[in-house]
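Thread: "does anyone have the structure for this chain?"

Original post by V.I.:
We have the sequence but no experimental structure in hand. Need at least a predicted one for the grant figures.
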Amino acid sequence: MARYTGPKRRLSRREGVALSAKDLKAIERKGAVPPGQHGLGRRRRLSEYGLQLREKQKTKRIFGLLEKQFKRYYDMASKVKGATGIALLQILETRLDNVVYRLGFAKSRNFARQLVGHGHILVDDKKVTIPSFNVNMNQTIAISPQMRDNTQVKKSLEEATTLPGWLERKATVGKVLRIPDREEMEQSVNEQLIVEFYSR
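Reply from O.Q.:
Generated one for you, tokens below.
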């Protein structure tokens, strides 16, 4: 699957939020100044469409997706009964790379994606190398034995904060207890703006 390989801090500055922990200091230091030589110039007030577009772009970039895949997830969510925005976030949160990140096995979603892609993650004791793999309820996610002593993984586990309520972890094995509720998902996203963007 294709992925963005360009400058990542530029994306954080464009969206005005730190898309990864590394970018947090840069955003705090420089403020939410858009990239480019005219970034400090006078900024126009965003239209309703502009706000919706920025929210969609921000969400897409937080989860490390490209346009086509994000639109496909939205189409899947729109077919689910209930609120489309919540369904979209649930699909994004239960991607394998995001679950690995939420369990604290990786410091960032990019590193989580790399762990999955290189075959270091087991789902129900079977190697899975697809970052977009959808994890279901009661499935177990574990780090492969050869990666348990990896310095980066150990550091991530030590620094991991409290887990969201829909996950549990014992050492290097995690489990999905249930589908996440809205308050347990990405808080910086306004899913209603995304629904409005695609409903135009």
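V.I.: this helps a lot. The radius of gyration is 18 Å.
O.Q.: and The mean pLDDT is 84.
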